[in-house]
Amino acid sequence: MNRHLKHWIGMAPKYKYNSRFFRKSLVMMLLVASIPGLIIGVSIYWLASNNLEEELQRLHQNQIKQRAENIDDQLAYLELTFSHWAFDSKFDEKLKGMDIAYNFEQIQDLYRTLLVMEGTHPLLERVDLYLDKPKAVAINKEQYAYITDPLKRQPYESLLRQERSVFWTNAYPTLQAKAAEAPPKLSLVNKIPGGSSEPFGAIVATINQENLIKMLKTLTPYNEGETILLTKDGNWKLSSNEAGAFSEIDTALQQEYSKHNAGSESFLFEYKQMTYSVSYGQFSRLGTTWVYISAAPLTSITAPVLLLSKWILFISLSGLLLSLLMSWFVSHRMYSPIERLVRLLSGDKGNGQGDEFDLFEKQWNHLSKESESMRSELKEQMPILREGFFLQLVQGNFYAFQENDLRERMKHHGWKTDNQQFVAFMFQLTGFSNLQGRFTLGDEDLVTFTAANIIEELTATQYEQAQIINFHHFSVGLLLSFPLDHPMRFVDEDISEYCQQVTETINHILKMQVTVSISKWTHQVKQIPHLFEEARQALVYRDLLDDNQIIKTELLAKSSISMESSFPFTLEKEIVHAIRNGLENEAVELIGQFMKELSESGSTELAVQQGMLQLLGSIRYAVLQSGMNPVHLFGGVNLFEQLAQIKEPEEMLKWFQHKLVAVFVEELISRQDFHMKQMVEKVIVHLRENYMTMLSLDSSAELFGTSPYTLSRAFKHIAGINFIDYLTDIRIDNAKRLLRETEIRINEVAEKVGYQHTYFNRIFKKYEGITPSQFRELNRS
């Protein structure tokens, strides 16, 4: 290229150049570069002063709405927490007959419970317990007091006369001596016992007004703003100022809100020569509508933008002036190298009226043509990349080629093919999840590339003909060839030493384990794709309990490998049961134990993977039984395909935990009512312990304090089976156990599982298809 350049320069005519063109261009570029900043500054200033108020008012409204939703969620969580406490066994019917003066231990237990309840939420200031029976008494964590005065009892009794079992009030009296001097505080009341139509007491949670004011201040994003919270009927209201009492601006805001509450959710409000952006909204709390109103001065919102736009405008003008001055000073120095280049290209030292960039363009076009011509010649002479050829070869893309054609192609790439035999290796890396910080997710290709380089370096020092193929995702292939007359005994020893060296090197450098599978030998090039497929399939027989392994397909075919393994059916049922009941941690532990038992009974990768796929199918069936659509729940992902791609047990366990169990349990928790779930679990325990007695849906509902309809519906929803079917399954299972393991008579078996003899025969044959006697005979045989 240099030779062509010198030749072209020698033949070029004398060229006149003029530096004024460059200086004018430089000045023009600097001016153009400064103009956008000037336009941006003017545009931002105009936007901030004319159109920004409306947009920022909308953004302020959205911001306040999001923060109000957070407050709504906090209050909803508080209501849900106290609803659960109302069903605690400490607040059941036993409190009706409790004598406070003598039941000291129970009172201490109540004190501790009230103390614990106070700590369940930061908004709580105090939790009181009021009991109407046997005597009217108010209890908190510090004391209890009998209420004998009828006038003082009226506020407490009014709580029990409310229609709702859970409600908010600001009329709850307090036990403190100076309570009458303090303004009434907001309280959450929950009648006890929970769900009862005849409550005899109430749990009263008094809200910490200071913390509520702090939460209310989050609706005021600027220090100069104001926020108020009030019930729609006006019985209770609170301001975000320190005292919580309404100021003049709060009263004015409330009055202005009453004029706009039927319109949009924001408006502008003028107060004492200042414009406020007001956003408001409401949320329902246990049948009561609460209203929040937030006001922020527009000057606090637009002032930073106006100031920024002025600075941008000032900086842009300054940059424009500076660019005009600097362009004249730096143009001469910047032009010096261009002047030397023009003299070099033109060979003319005089001045003229030409355009030096025209000279650059002509020379560049000439050199581009020369370069393109040389590149085309080089491209025509370049052979097909060696790595690309071998990758296509092992993938079977040359299946239509004849044996001789493939041998010629390999010779073209420098391989000897006459009187040669070939063998394929597959290196599978494991243990990526245990590197703990050396690599992160997404580095799989980097790790595989490093392993391929290590294998290539070790191979190059020992073998003359070798080709590395990077299959990515921790898999590396290797193709070797040896002369046909080479003694196989020495070849096998040499290969074993080589594999040992590769595994030790990768263990030392990458801290990962290696499984090597070695294919059979062949002297045909067309069989090479089959060798790699054979070696790849042999990897599934690796022993999960060993770190580094060498698998020879010849020995694998000769040996009788048993794939029979003991499938832990009991653990499978326990896992499904734990997941159905939302016990995520217990389910993950059981899955780990399930995988451990699979590994111990049949430790090959194939056996463990098949067992985990079976477990996935059982869990997916449990999802369907729970009334959920797996396609919607897991986003349409093919779970079986994902699991089949995972090779390491640790990664399998993480996949089950995060991609399956956590997703299902989260959806399950969001759907189920925990109180009903606990009740059904107690009913199930009761059925399992008393199945031999006369049980019915009505008696069980009465025992656990609910209606038969409610129990039947909850049982079907949570257990996935009808009440009577579940009881029948328990009795039939126990009857089968007695028939298999004992010699007692059929009528005695019927009595032990809660059936009459004639009915037992009918129900057993209905469920099992045979009579009890036939079942016993079949199990004996």
From TrEMBL:
**Keyword annotations for this protein?**
DNA-binding, Membrane, Transcription, Transcription regulation, Transmembrane, Transmembrane helix
| Entries under InterPro entries matching the protein | CdaR_GGDEF, Homeodomain-like_sf, HTH_AraC, HTH_AraC-typ_CS
Q: Which residues cross the membrane?
A: 21-48, 311-330
Name the SUPFAM superfamilies for this protein. Answer: Homeodomain-like
One short Pfam name that applies is: HTH_18
Q: Gene3D superfamilies, alphabetically?
A: Homeodomain-like, PAS domain
Coiled-coil parts of chain: none
Looking at the record, the residues that make up the HTH araC/xylS-type domain are 681-778
- Give the protein's recorded name: AraC family transcriptional regulator
Origin organism of this chain?
Paenibacillus agricola
